[in-house]
Specification:
D-Maltodextrin-Binding Protein, domain 2; 15 helices; about 15% strand; six-stranded mixed sheet; 11 strands
Length: about 350
């Protein structure tokens, strides 16, 4: 056999193998495999809890029933996992992740450390919106938004790219609040422990994280909540004013609306770009089925987590809306979004 003939035969075998791989059904592909679910946060926070409950139930709804293994990969406000999913994760539907709900806006603003294209990722679905708030310990003489305009409050901070630091920074830059971020805490659990010990005076995190870790703190008035970061109030804390309610002009309202769009993205999961369409479809429908699974819902309720799902197709459009922000608004958002 000549070199040319061997090369042609090799090419034919490669094409055949590729064709056979593409001809696999999702069930055939996933059978016996492991799906890696990367969590861009430390253990114990609301994103970690949501992801681990999802991992327990998703497998039975994916064709072929692969193992789904959740693991924490924190770093840089979840940019570490976002960049890894974009660059080196398998493009075959065996890698799923959850990152910060602000990742699309960070990309649009050119935030340092972003090396991913949000719209290229295949979004699978959302479990729930994710509303953040600021809580302040009861011994601190700061209770309201008006108080935060006059008196400095130290807040335990985590990654610079996370909503834990982004939202208080926006409040400082837009309204002149005096939130002082003390960075370096590994997650909201560690930050809330620091708050309890008196190392800091407050912390900004999700309502779900507070409710899950310390459900009595707010009802028992151990903490006050001067603001929630939401387009509309969370139904469980309607008395807490939203950040957008403090807007003094239509321009401030537009800026806050662009930033707080992330609350609707919430606890959303995605796979990589380049995954075959039938596998993306299989993952999305498996996610939808999991959202209706009574055992999944029971586990969420037990963990005091909310449940208000969104399908992957709608989520894909929501994420892409950020790309349509007009340039003048992008520049205004940039001025208040970063330190």
């Amino acid at each position: 056999m000549t070199i040319l003939t061997r090369a042609a035969a090799g090419l034919a075998l490669s094409i055949l193998a590729c064709g056979m791989a593409q001809a696999q059904t999702p069930e055939q592909f996933y059978k016996g495999k492991t799906v890696d679910l990367a969590i861009g946060y430390p253990p114990g926070g609301s994103n970690d809890i949501y992801a681990r409950i999802l991992a327990q139930h998703l497998s039975k709804h994916i064709p072929g029933h692969p193992n789904v293994i959740a693991r924490n990969q924190p770093g840089a406000g979840s940019f570490l996992v976002m960049n890894q999913m974009a660059a080196t994760a398998p493009k075959d539907g065996t890698a799923i992740a959850i990152g910060a709900p602000t990742v699309a806006l960070d990309e649009k603003l050119g935030t340092p450390g972003v090396r991913y294209k949000t719209g290229d990722l295949n979004w699978i679905g959302r479990i729930s919106p994710l509303i953040n708030m600021v809580m302040i310990w009861n011994t601190v003489p700061v209770k309201t938004h008006e108080d935060t305009l006059k008196t400095e409050v130290t807040l335990a901070g985590t990654g610079a790219g996370s909503t834990v630091s982004i939202y208080p920074t926006v409040m400082n830059n837009l309204f002149g609040t005096k939130y002082k971020l003390v960075m370096g805490y590994k997650g909201s659990n560690e930050a809330m422990l620091a708050l309890e010990r008196g190392e800091v005076e407050g912390h900004s995190t999700s309502w779900e994280a507070l409710k899950g870790a310390h459900p009595t703190w707010y009802p028992d008035k151990k903490v006050s909540i001067p603001v929630q970061f939401a387009l509309k109030p969370h139904p469980e804390i309607p008395e807490v004013p939203t950040a957008i309610s403090f807007a003094r002009t239509e321009e401030e309202r537009r800026i806050l609306s662009a930033i707080l769009n992330a609350t609707e993205v919430g606890t959303s999961f995605f796979t990589t770009a380049g995954v075959p369409a039938d596998r993306v479809e299989a993952l999305r429908r498996a996610f939808d089925a999991t959202m209706e699974d009574p055992e999944f819902k029971a586990d969420l309720a037990k963990a005091r987590m909310s449940h208000n799902p969104m399908k992957g197709e709608e989520l894909q459009q929501l994420v892409r809306q950020v790309s349509d922000l007009p340039p003048d608004l992008v520049e205004k958002v940039r001025k208040v979004y970063q330190n």
